Amino acid sequence: MIWKWLRKKKKSKEQTANVKAKQKNKLEDKTQDMKQPKNKHEPKKDKQLSVQDAKQAAQTNGKQKQSAYTAKHEAQTQDKQQQSAYTAKHEAQTQDKQQQSAYATKHEKRTQDKQQQSAYATKHEAQTQNKQQQPAYATKHEERTPDKQQQSEKNNSGNSIYNFSKPEQEHVHSLQDLLDKLKASSDFVSYHTSDDETMPYWISYYRPSLDGEKLQKYLMPALLERTCSSLEELKEHIPMSGVTITNDLQKIEDMVLKGHAIVQLHNQDQKCILANIAIDNYRAPTVPLNESTVIGPQEGFVEDIDTNINLVRKRLPVLALQTKEVIIGKFSKTKVVMMYLENLAEKENVDYLEESLRIIEYDQINDSSYIQELMGEKSIFPLFINTERTDRVTTALIDGKIAIFVDGSPNVLLTPVSYFDFFVSPEDYNVSWLYATFSRFLRLIAVLFSICATPLYVAILSYHYELIPSDLLETLILSRAQVPFPPLIEAIFLELAIDLLREAGARLPMKVGQTLGIVGGIVIGQASVQAGLTSNILLIIVALSALASFITPIYKMGNAVRLLRFPFLLFAELGGLLGISLGFTLLFTHLFRLSSLRKPFALIYPARQQSLKDSWIRLPLSMIDTRDIQARPQHVKKSAKGISTKHTSDFDD
């Protein structure tokens, strides 16, 4: 465009110069003509003509000058227009360049931000790896006091009255504000210990949580006998444990809700004494109800978490036994404690479990089963062992596993576990190894029978009756001669009847429930056979299947086995033996995909030879010299040395 404009401008200048040159030549010619001498004898007419010609020439020259001036003016106008267009174009290009530079600057800034973010992420990952690799992390984390842990948990949960994201009227800025909020409850009392209000000592507490003996025998005498000038002096004269001085409003709230009393020198003081006068009404350790044994310890956990931890510490009095505390529950504020042996439990398992527990958010935690389900357990098979026996917990801790205690629950969770751990009874270690191995085989066969017996009955009668021996076939024909239902409906009817009796017996009082289970089973079974609703052979099979499902030592695994019968009945009805095979294929696939604390749940795959010494068989204790590989303990070898009874002398001796 610029070159075209320059060419046009050059052509216009050349045209203007040519026009000027022509006009100049004409003027010179006319001037010469006028200067030439004229003939005196020329007639007058010729003179007049020459004058007229001169006038016309002058007029022509004037017109030419005007046209030249007009052309020059038009050329200048075009030049100005072209210059203005060029200027506008130049400005537009300049703006484009500025925009491009601004975009480039912005892009560079974004690139720098991304680089900074990637550098930060890399740095964060490196720090995370370093933290995981540093063994001092666990020690530093364990040194945090429970008070700080509780305070951080409550601040993160956002359910405390000290969360300043709430409206201004709900804020608590002083101890007096906290006491005013506590007084809104009818069971909270706050009073002066003397009729003279100028005397010190104000006491406040929740009346239902009060232990009258502690209050009248230990706390009140110290308040009434002497007048102290400071809380530190008063604390020395209170003959009680668990007495602290604090001005932390969050801690004061927590302790008062747990049964502590607030003692102030004066009503407006911000610092106070917290005295533990809570009533201890927990039951003493009793015999485990759901995991009874004939031989072995008869000591079970209770609802008090401190009592449960003490029961384990009595059995494992070592410094390596460590605990970590987490508060879970938006409203219940339930204390959850992890327990493990520091020199045996894998640190990765401990860190992962602690992080998982801190992520859990739920309104109320009533039992350890809440934790079990909130940890992501969605399978029909339990991925945590739920036990109330102290000996089972101590054995698991020595194998490098982790125990989870929940305040208010007598059941303790054990993780990581494998499928075979659910068929191991603590009594197996109190009897001979041969009988223990036989018992474990019997349990595994009973589980297989409980799952397959009724589906096999349906599959054989529906598709494969030719597999039945002729003598037994005649008996089956006679037993089903008056039954109007197909085998599937008959089997489901009896299975549901057995489950109804079991549920009814569990919900009724113990003696009534046992009587109902026995009498109800006999009466309903006999009546259904006589009425022609079921066959007597199927009644025997269903009863044996129910007994086989109760043989598992862990209650939740027995529930899973009982539930598996119903889908296998459908597979048997749809495909016979092929359908049952398909059901087992799906079952094993599901088992192989399960994991407990990121460890394989089914030890058949991948197989580990060390774990077979104490899984579906039990070798003598002196031969079990390795720990359970499932938990990946830090030290696999364990002490296993006994006295050999093998004779080393000759027969003659």
Automatic annotation (TrEMBL):
Record protein name field: Spore germination protein
Listed Basic residues bias regions: 1-12
Family classification: Belongs to the GerABKA family.
Keywords linked to the UniProt accession: Membrane, Transmembrane, Transmembrane helix
Membrane-topology descriptor: Multi-pass membrane protein
Subcellular location: Membrane
GO BP: any one term: spore germination
Keyword set includes Nuclease: no
UniProt biased composition (Basic and acidic residues): 25-48, 139-151
Composition bias type Polar residues, residue spans: 49-69, 127-136, 152-163
Spans annotated as Disordered: 1-164, 632-653
GO annotations of cellular component type: membrane
Transmembrane segments: 441-463, 537-555, 567-592
Major subcellular site: membrane
